[in-house]
TrEMBL record:
Annotated Pfam families: DUF846
Keywords linked to the UniProt accession: Membrane, Transmembrane, Transmembrane helix
UniProt entry tagged with the keyword Transmembrane: yes
Keyword Signal: no
Gene it is expressed from: Tvp23b
Species annotation: Sula dactylatra (Masked booby)
BP GO terms, sorted: protein secretion; vesicle-mediated transport
The protein's name in its UniProt record: Golgi apparatus membrane protein TVP23 homolog
Sequence similarity: Belongs to the TVP23 family.
Bilayer topology: Multi-pass membrane protein
This protein's GO CC annotations: Golgi membrane
Compartment list: Membrane
Membrane-spanning parts: 29-48, 54-74, 121-142, 148-167
Coiled-coil blocks: none
């Protein structure tokens, strides 16, 4: 796989405070809107469809269409515009499948073209919605709503695939995700400890 990695901040914790005012504007409002629109709409339709109509087929088709539109939009448009990341699969001449994870290169001035606000919107939507579909999956399983289980599994698979792909873009295809999470939590704990010591000293 081709790894062209830029350190795009997952939670924007490493950005300089001086740059935050410059990076707080949403530069791609349409992309930011549709990044959340399809995935939130699918969740709302799933929650309300039994109240609005008695047709399971209509609800299922609507939810799957929304999930498919979300998968395509996030994979091909919003990830590239909002955080400068993209991933895809390609097959070489020998018939072997290769996953490619790319990140936008830093410009010569060292500045990033994505804003802090867009990055937060992107990662918040990307992480939260698959977790909600996992909760729906357990709910459908334990309440014996077997007909809804296939719809919920589609939500978990489509949104989970985008989440996995973009995390691989963020941390690099050969890095251990467990060690990345451990390092991040360690940094957060250290910052909280230093902040408490500063408060105590003052």
């Amino acid at each position: 796989s081709n790894d062209d990695i830029e350190d795009v901040s997952l939670f924007d914790a490493d950005d300089d405070v001086s740059r935050r005012s410059k990076k707080s504007k949403i530069r791609h409002p349409v992309a930011s809107f549709f990044h959340l629109f399809f995935r939130v709409s699918a969740i709302v339709v799933y929650l309300l469809c039994e109240l609005l109509t008695s047709s399971f087929i209509a609800c299922m088709v609507t939810i799957i269409l929304l999930l498919s539109c979300d998968f395509w939009a996030v994979k091909n448009v919003t990830g590239r515009l909002m955080v400068g990341l993209r991933w895809w699969n390609q097959v070489d001449d020998d018939g072997r499948s290769h996953w490619v994870f790319e990140a936008r290169k830093v410009s010569t001035q060292g500045s990033k073209t994505s804003s802090e606000a867009e990055s937060r919107i992107f990662w918040l939507g990307l992480i939260t919605c698959p977790m909600i579909w996992v909760i729906f999956a357990f709910s459908a399983l334990f309440s014996f709503k077997v007909k809804w289980l296939a719809v919920v599994v589609m939500g978990v698979v489509l949104q989970g695939a985008n989440l996995y792909g973009y995390i691989r873009c963020k941390v690099g295809s050969r890095k251990n995700l467990t060690s990345m999470a451990t390092n991040y939590l360690g940094k957060q704990f250290l910052r909280q400890t230093v902040a408490k010591e500063d408060q105590t000293a003052s």
